[in-house]
């Protein structure tokens, strides 16, 4: 049985990006439930998990990092690609490079770098 937080995360995902493919939606939900996301609201956890997932799974971000670009430069270069995916998935918002809240705090790891402890919360 799903916890109340898991239900809120599922509702937030459906509201934010209603046309996300199932496999991507599952990865985003799992990341949003991770331990380091627990202090965040479900909406914020879903948003950060979605952006991180899209960045790593649907853009050249990792290749740019491997080529020696720093994090900020690599994120700048994939911004339009992230927004294109958000548009295809029917997202209710887009990534804005000028809005600090679109990015996780510097001490918060990307969702794909978190521990595997996604215990039911």
Automatic annotation (TrEMBL):
Stretches for region Disordered: 93-121
Domain of life: Bacteria
Residue span, DUF2293 domain: 12-90
Pfam family for this entry, one: DUF2293
Record-linked InterPro entries: DUF2293, UCP036238
Biased composition (Acidic residues): 98-121
The protein's name: DUF2293 domain-containing protein
